[in-house]
Design the sequence.
């Protein structure tokens, strides 16, 4: 299960097609185009499990990472510092709908009109056994542009 990832467009559409979820692909097909220049000051997120999970002896950490493709760029790249780690991490026996949240504040990341933004949701085994289990979650992330 290491490195399971999926696009989470800033516009809110959830994408779960493995063919379209390849980070580093030649485009950001589900990106949000920034309509005005500003500064990203915060990121917040919410996630919940879609099925019951048994992760005894394992811990899975969920992270949302903002990617950006600037004018002229083909592939989006990670924006340094623009990530959000969800807590609590997924571990033990979890019911359907178990939730986690994240918040990153104090950011000062400039964006310009035309930048394309997309969040990438990442599930990583961070402790214990890598059980190679799929973790089905919904993940919503938002950002503040001042």
Sequence:
């Amino acid at each position: 299960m290491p490195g399971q990832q999926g696009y989470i467009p800033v516009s809110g559409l959830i994408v779960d097609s493995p063919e379209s979820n390849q980070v580093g692909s030649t485009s950001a097909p589900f990106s949000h185009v920034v309509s005005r220049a500003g500064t990203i000051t915060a990121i917040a997120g919410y996630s919940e499990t879609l099925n019951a999970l048994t992760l005894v002896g394992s811990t899975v950490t969920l992270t949302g990472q903002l990617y950006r493709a600037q004018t002229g760029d083909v592939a989006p790249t990670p924006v340094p510092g623009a990530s959000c780690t969800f807590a609590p991490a997924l571990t033990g026996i979890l019911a359907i709908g178990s939730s986690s949240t994240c918040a990153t504040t104090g950011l000062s990341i400039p964006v310009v009109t035309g930048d394309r933004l997309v969040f990438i949701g990442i599930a990583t085994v961070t402790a214990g056994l890598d059980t190679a289990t799929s973790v089905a979650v919904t993940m919503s992330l938002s950002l503040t542009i001042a």
Q: What stands out?
A: Strands lie at 4-9, 32-33, 38-49, 53-69, 77-85, 90-94, 99-111, 116-128, 137-145. Residues 58 and 114 are 41 Å apart (CA to CA). Residues 1-28 have pLDDT under 50 and may be disordered.
